[in-house]
Amino acid sequence: MSPEPLESQILKQILGDERGASVFALNVMAGELARLLSCSEAAALGNPQVVAVVGPAGIGKTALVEQFVAGLGAVRVLRASCDEAEALLSYGIVAQLRRSAGPAGRDLSSVAADEPITVGMRFLDVLGALQEAGPVVVVLDDAGWSDPPSAGA
């Protein structure tokens, strides 16, 4: 018996193995997962990708992304989560990504007085350094709540 495809494994984890799951939801999630996997394959071939997973609250965007990332294997993941309460905290998202980057993120430790374009260039340098060791995925949850300086970077 052949192993179950990654898409099916992830969908079962997201939707559960209940027979009553909506066929529509299953098809939508399978389509989105296939798009994420396609972008991952393109990135692995040296073509950087930017993907936005959008939709109404509670539809399973975060769960889809988390399960996708969990199935990627040896990939460095930088994470940040935006929150309405932190939307006025300058460079709050950049600070989360800096911590997530570990020692490579130290170049982002004193960004408070810098212009967003400068911070963005420094973040790209951090990504470049991390990519020398292997693939990197940046996950930004609830980007609509990001602080303006981080969004500008």
Write up what this structure looks like.
By secondary structure, this protein is mainly alpha-helical. The protein has helices at residues 6-15, 23-44, 61-70, 92-101, 116-131, 148-152; strands spanning 76-81, 136-141. It contains 6 helices and 2 strands, in the order αααβααβα. It has a two-stranded parallel sheet with strand order 1-2. α1 (6-15) packs across α2 and α1 crosses α3 (61-70). The chain is globular, with a radius of gyration of 17 Å. The relative contact order is 0.14.
- Our measurement of the CA-to-CA distance between the termini, rounded to an integer number of angstroms, reads 49 Å
Q: Give the number of helices.
A: 6
Summarize the amount of helix as a percent range. 40-55%
The tally of strands reads 2
Main beta-sheet strand count, sense and barrel state: 2 strands, parallel
**Mean pLDDT reading:** 79
Along the chain, the helix and strand elements come as HHHEHHEH
**Quaternary status:** single chain
**Low-confidence regions:** 18-26
Cross-sheet strand order for the largest sheet: 1-2
Principal-axis shape equals globular
Helix-strand makeup class = mainly alpha
Report the C-alpha radius of gyration, rounded: 17 Å
Strand content is: 5-15%
